[in-house]
Amino acid sequence: MTRNDLNNSLLTLSLGFTLGLFTATHLLRLRDRERLRKACSRTQKHLIKGQRAALGVDLTRCCIPNISKGKSRQRVVVLGAGAFGTAMAYAACQGGNEVVIYMRDARQCEVMNREHRNSKYLTEFSLHVEGEADIRGICTLEELKEELAVPGVVIIHALPCQLTPPWFREHKDLIPKDALICVTAKGLYLPTQQLMGHAILDALDRAEQPLAFLSGPSFASEIMKGDPTTLVVASDQLFQAVRIQRIMNNFKTLRVFTSDDPVGVQLGGALKNPLAVGAGMISGMGCGTNTLSAVVTRASGELRELCIAMGGNPRTIDGLAGTGDLMLTCFSPQSRNQRCGQRLIHGERVEDIQNNTTVEGIATADVAIVYADMCGLELPIFRCVHALIHKKITPEEAIADLMGRPIHHEVVHH
């Protein structure tokens, strides 16, 4: 065989190999595309009609929707016209959705519909959103039932934690079984010592009610002012978290991330409250930034320990629902929990403080200790805050206890 014949044979072999590789790759891609199409079809089968319509996308046609370009208009019903409920309604309206706020006060409702503002909370802010339909107020159960009957309705729950399960228990017949409930309350339910999601499901007597949990560093007044704010929304079913993300994210002042760790997001949002009470106590004692920074850092580690023990993801505590919210409530005088800690150190009673304001950190501190005992965790900062709230120790004894603990290597969690 001549050199030319050998070269021609090698060229033919190379071309054949390249063509075969291209054909095999193309067939594998077709196979994977068909597998993906079938997987999406199976996912679609598990969605009931209302959920499929509310998604705004057809999973059999498009597996990964481009949520930054165009989105379907949603009917959003906000339960509670307090400061945070008002801010959530305003944010959802900015996102181009039809928003209704349910409240019990007929006068407050009438003013909202006439003047486009909340006459009780955040009164200095207009609720009118340029280019969008105005937020509507409703105040009767008949109106609420009518709004909740809209297919694909999303409920944003903004009631105080301890009132939430009783409200859902009393009105469970109004709540459609396929309606997505987005919980914004950051706390634990004291009577049953439950996470808010578990307490809501028990109150509704349903295991399959779709739930999502919205949390993160966010004061209502700053959302209304348009200060750039970031939040996280978590759900066991990630597509439900994406639904809330699409409703609330406006690509201008509010940015929402998703999570599949509702346990971690709930624990982070709830358990930062007693820690913020402790931060207020530190300020009330006259201690400075050295002390506060040390306690917040070490408390974050305790929060991570408890999250792991309760079945959450410790990385969640490193994010917006954990460290982010913890810094907000511990360092800002706007925090009700932080102000409560200062008032307690100055001698006021818990009962007097709670007469005119809701302080979730008081009730949550009790449940946090129950969780710590259940999981066999020491959590010295949580325990000191709890003891100070209930006047079991003095501030001087708390400092001596924490500073006098055995010295050891700092453990940094990865």
TrEMBL record:
EC code(s) of this entry: 1.1.1.8
Key word rRNA-binding present: no
Catalyzed reactions per annotation: sn-glycerol 3-phosphate + NAD(+) = dihydroxyacetone phosphate + NADH + H(+)
Keywords associated with the record: Membrane, NAD, Oxidoreductase, Transmembrane, Transmembrane helix
A single BP term in Gene Ontology: glycerol-3-phosphate catabolic process
Binding site for substrate: K186, R336, N337
SUPFAM superfamilies in the record: 6-phosphogluconate dehydrogenase C-terminal domain-like, NAD(P)-binding Rossmann-fold domains
Glycerol-3-phosphate dehydrogenase NAD-dependent N-terminal domain segment(s): 76-237
Protein name from the UniProt record: Glycerol-3-phosphate dehydrogenase [NAD(+)]
Gene3D superfamilies, A to Z: N-(1-d-carboxylethyl)-l-norvaline Dehydrogenase, domain 2, NAD(P)-binding Rossmann-like Domain
Taxonomic placement: Eukaryota, Sar, Stramenopiles, Ochrophyta, Bacillariophyta
Residues engaged in binding NAD(+): G80, A81, G82, A83, F84, G85, A220, R336
Main EC class the enzyme belongs to: oxidoreductase
PANTHER family documented for this protein: GLYCEROL-3-PHOSPHATE DEHYDROGENASE, GLYCEROL-3-PHOSPHATE DEHYDROGENASE [NAD(+)] 2, CHLOROPLASTIC
Organism (species): Cyclotella atomus
